[in-house]
Prior knowledge:
Layout: H1 7-10, H2 23-35, E1 41-46, H3 52-64, H4 78-85, E2 91-95, H5 102-112, E3 122-127, H6 134-145, E4 151-157, H7 165-168, E5 172-176, H8 181-195, H9 201-211, H10 215-228, H11 238-245, H12 250-262, H13 265-277, H14 282-302, H15 304-309, H16 314-324, H17 329-347, H18 352-369, H19 372-375, H20 403-412, E6 441-442, E7 444-451, H21 465-469, H22 472-480, H23 507-510, H24 532-538, H25 547-550, E8 553-558, E9 561-566, H26 569-575, H27 578-592, E10 597-600, E11 605-606, H28 610-618, H29 621-630, E12 632-640
Parallel strand pairs: 1-4, 1-5, 2-3, 3-4, 6-11, 9-10
Antiparallel strand pairs: 7-12, 8-9
Helix pairs in contact: 2-3, 3-4, 5-6, 8-9, 9-10, 9-11, 10-11, 12-13, 12-18, 13-18, 14-16, 14-17, 17-18
Amino acid sequence: MAANASLAALYRPQTFAEVVGQDMVKSILSRAAREDRVAPAYLLSGTRGVGKTTIARIFAKALNCEHAPTGEPCNECEACRRITQGNFVDVVEIDGASNRGIDDIRRLRDAVGYAPLEGRYKVFIIDEAHMLTKEAFNALLKTLEEPPARVTFIMATTEQHKFPVTIVSRCQHFVFRQIPEATLEAHICDILQREGRPFEKEAAHLIARRAAGSVRDSMSLLGQVLALGCAPDEPLTAKQAREVLGLAGQEVMDRLLDALAGQDAAAIAVLVRELLAQGADMGFFLRELCGLWRNLFLIKQAGRDAAKELDMPESEQERLLSMASRFSLTYIHAAWQMTLDSQRRILTSLEPSAGLELLLLNLAMLPRLLPLEELEPIVAPASGIVTPQGSAPLSGGATGSSPAASASSASSAQSAAPRPAAAPVASPAPSSVPSESPAPVQSAPSPSFVRSSPASASVPSPVSASAAASSPVAATARESAPAPAAEPAPQPAPEPAPHLTEAPKPAETRAPVSRRPSAAWKDVPVDPSLTWDTFLDACRDNHDIPLPMLRQVTGEVRGDWLVLQALSQVIGQQLQRPEKLRVLESLAASWAGRPLQIAFRPPQRIVRTEAELKEEVQSHPVIKKFQDAYDARLVRCTPINR
Length: 642
C-alpha cells in the first residue's frame, strides 16, 4: 500500500467478516458465493461510506478465488491479490459518472459476450450507477435480465430513487444502513490501537458522532485529527478533536443553557460570535443541541429511569438532571420542536449565522412571549373548535357578549357568512354534554394585530395571520393550544334585520318567534314510525321551503311535537320565520296525519359577528400579554368557516 494512502484505503476490509455492520447483506452474499448460486444482477444502495463498493469487491474475490466456491476469499491466491490491486481482467470496475452514455454501455455489452479469461466469473461493478442516462439504462435492460453464463453485474448507488423500476425489478436489491454510533466508535478505537496511538475515548466518540454513520467519513475525520491535532507521540484528546473539527464543547452548551434560563440576550449574542470566530460546525452544533433537548425531555419526563437508558457516564447523568430541573417540561418540548424545525432553514439560509442567533434568541424569550404555565393544562383537539356547554368563557369571567355586540349580531347574522382565515387561535378541550343539548360548534376567531404607536394610531396596518403563525409564538401556541372557552348555551336566535327599503314594522311583529322546546316533549319517547327521511320524501313537491334547506336539518317526532335541529344558526333563523313555520306545520300535519307543534333545539353551529369575537378574544389573558409584549393592537378577528 502506498505511503500516502488514507486510513480508509489502508484499512479497507478484505473479507466479509472485517466489514463494519451490514450483517444481513454480508450473510446473504457470502452464502451465495459459498453455494455458487449467483444472481444475474445486484443493486447495492445506501448512504455514502457504508461499504457498498467494498462488499462488491469482496464478493468478486469470493467468486473468483482459487478455493471457490467459498464464503470468504483467501486473499492469498493470485486471483485475490490481483483483484485487490485492481488489475484482474475478469473483474471490471466502471465509474458510472464518467461512463454514463449509451456508447459506453454498448462497449460493455460487447465485453459481456466473452467468457471469463482467468477466473470463474466475469464481474462488472458499476459505481454511482444512478448517473447513467435513460438511454444507457434501456440498453442495459436485456443484458441484466439474461446475461451469459458466469457473468454478474453489481451496481452501487447513493440515490436509488433515480433508478428506473425496470432496472430495479431485474436486480436483487440490498439497502445498506447507516452504521450505529456505538459500532462506529468501536471501529475508530480499533484503528487507533492498530496505529499505536494513545487516545481518549471521548475523542473517538466525538469523531463517530461527527461522521453520522459513515465509515469512510470517520476515517477521513480521524486522519485529519491525527495530522493536525497532535504530534505522533502525543495522545489524542477530546479537546484537540473539537478544535480540529470545529465542534462546540460541553462548556458551550452549559453557557447556552445558563443564558436561556436567564433570558440573557446579550450572553447569547456573545456566544454566537465566539462560535463563529472558532469556526464551529453549525450543522453539528444544531444536531448536538437537538440531542441535548431530547435527553433533557426524557430525563424531565421519566427522571433517573430515563437517565439509565441514555447510555452515558454517571457524571453526565447528574449534569443533565441538574439542567432539566431549571426548565419546565413544556418549555423543553417547545425548544426541541423549534430547533428541529429550524435546522434546514438555518443551514440553507443566505445568512446562517443570523438564523442561528435568531433561533437562540427566540428560545431565550419564549417564556416571555408565551405564558406556558397557563397553556399547559389545556389540550387542543385536532379537528374543529368545539365549545361545550358549561365551559368557561374566553374572557375568564364574562358570561356573554356586550349589548352592542349582541345588537350587531342580530343585524348581521343572516347576511354575514364566516370568512376563511389562516388558523384558529386555540381550541378548548371537549366536555360532557347532555344528549338533549348537543354541543354547538362555533367559528374559530383568527386575530390580526398591528403595533400601536402615536404616529400610526389613526391608520392601522394589519399583519396577516400567516406571518404571525410563522413566529415561534404562534408555532408553540398551536402545539400547546390555549383554548378560548365557549359561551353559555345560545340564546334564542333573533329575527334577521328587515331590508333597508322596507318600512319599519311594529316591535311586536319584528320579535323573533320563540320555538324553544318546552319540558313537555323531553319525557315523551321518539315515535319510530315517523322518521325524518319519510318527512323529506313527503316534502319533495313543496315549493315554499327548498328541499336542500330541509336537508340541513334533523328532526324527530315526540308525541305531538316535531323537534327540529338545524346544522347552523342561519338555517335555524330562516326556518323560525312566521311564514316558514306555517309551511312547516302544514307539511308536518299532512305527513303525520295529525297536527304537530314545531320546536327547535339549539343549532349545531353558532355564527357570531366579528365584533363579538373580537371582544371575546381581546379579553383573553394570553392575548393581553401578547399585546403588552409587542405593543400591538387587535384590529380584526375573522371567523373560520367550519
